[in-house]
């Protein structure tokens, strides 16, 4: 079955990003397909490579990047939410005159249409948030 | 057509359990995750709302809060993440009551 996952909450806030990660991983391990993981609202903060959590804590961002690499996931950050919160890739840096980027490996920035399309193309849309 | 209802808040921290249980149809399923697991604790004010409903809690979230099966309302099932995935698959829609 094909799933799209929506994540509305940032890392280390409550539990939504952890729940979404564990659900996504379990679905993949059961042989399901993840059509897209769409990060919306504060969820875009899951896609900055500049986080440094304590060494004995889980690294939520790296964990997403690694899962994305292992399963070739399409992990999309909402562009308007990312602009507001300072999550920047090369294209956004150029377009908005920023002096740096911070997007983590495996993520890309795109529009809300990607969420709608994910919902249309998938058998189920599962929303994690707070 | 069945729906899986997801509740992630304690009944003491919002009305989502109340909303979900009042809206769900007889064949629907309810899965309590995160702080939602508190809704399935025996003898608390929300316990009566679960009567006659198909209710599960996410085991890892229950354990993370120091709670065990004997604290749960009778008939409530415990699932792991793989079981969560199965519930998403076996219901036609998923509604997160955020």
Give the topology.
The complex is a heterodimer of chains A (130) and B (98).
Chain A: E1 2-7, H1 16-29, E2 33-39, H2 60-71, E3 75-78, H3 79-85, H4 90-96, E4 107-110, H5 113-121, E5 124-128
Parallel strand pairs in A: 1-2, 1-5, 2-3, 3-4
Chain B: E1 3-7, H1 16-23, E2 29-32, E3 54-58, H2 59-64, E4 77-79, H3 81-90, E5 93-96
Parallel strand pairs in B: 1-2, 1-5, 2-3, 3-4
Task: Provide a descriptive summary of the structure in words.
- The complex is a heterodimer of chains A (130) and B (98).
- Chain A has 130 residues and is of the alpha/beta class.
- Chain A has a single domain, classed as DsrEFH-like (Hypothetical Protein Ychn, Chain: A).
- Chain A contains 5 helices and 5 strands; from the N terminus they run βαβαβααβαβ.
- Chain A has helices at residues 16-29, 60-71, 79-85, 90-96, 113-121, and strands at 2-7, 33-39, 75-78, 107-110, 124-128.
- In chain A, strands 4-3-2-1-5 form a 5-stranded parallel sheet, sandwiched between helices.
- In chain A, β1 (2-7), α1 (16-29) and β2 form a beta-alpha-beta unit.
- In chain A, α1 (16-29) runs parallel beside α2.
- Chain B is an alpha/beta fold.
- Chain B has one domain (3-96): DsrEFH-like (Hypothetical Protein Ychn, Chain: A, 3-Layer(aba) Sandwich).
- Chain B is built from 3 helices and 5 strands; from the N terminus they run βαββαβαβ.
- Chain B has helices at residues 16-23, 59-64, 81-90, and strands spanning 3-7, 29-32, 54-58, 77-79, 93-96.
- A 5-stranded parallel sheet of chain B has the order 4-3-2-1-5.
- Chain B is globular and about 35 Å long.
- The model of chain B has no long low-confidence stretch (mean pLDDT 97).
- The A-B interface holds A 1, 3, 8, 14-16, 19, 22-23, 25-27, 29-30, 32, 124-130 and B 6, 8, 33-35, 60-61, 80-82, 84-86, 88-89, 93-94, 96, 98.
């Amino acid at each position: 079955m094909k799933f799209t996952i929506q994540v509305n909450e940032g890392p280390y806030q409550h539990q939504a990003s952890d729940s979404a990660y564990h659900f996504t991983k379990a679905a993949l391990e059961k042989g399901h397909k993840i059509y897209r993981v769409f990060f919306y609202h504060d969820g875009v903060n899951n896609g900055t490579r500049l986080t440094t959590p304590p060494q004995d804590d889980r690294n939520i961002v790296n964990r997403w990047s690694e899962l994305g690499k292992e399963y070739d996931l399409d992990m999309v950050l909402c562009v308007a939410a990312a602009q507001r919160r300072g999550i920047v890739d090369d294209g956004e840096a150029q377009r908005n005159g920023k002096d740096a980027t911070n997007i983590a490996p495996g993520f890309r920035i795109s529009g809300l249409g990607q969420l709608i399309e994910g919902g249309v193309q998938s058998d189920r849309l599962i929303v994690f948030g707070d | 057509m069945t729906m899986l209802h997801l509740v992630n808040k304690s009944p003491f921290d919002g009305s989502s359990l109340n909303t979900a249980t009042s809206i769900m149809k007889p064949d629907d399923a309810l899965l309590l995750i995160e702080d939602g697991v508190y809704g399935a604790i025996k003898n608390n004010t929300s316990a009566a709302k679960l009567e006659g409903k198909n209710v599960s809690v996410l085991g890892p979230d229950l354990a993370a809060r120091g709670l065990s099966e004997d604290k749960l309302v009778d008939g409530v099932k415990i699932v792991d993440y793989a079981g969560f995935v199965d519930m998403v698959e076996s219901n036609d829609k998923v509604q997160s009551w955020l």
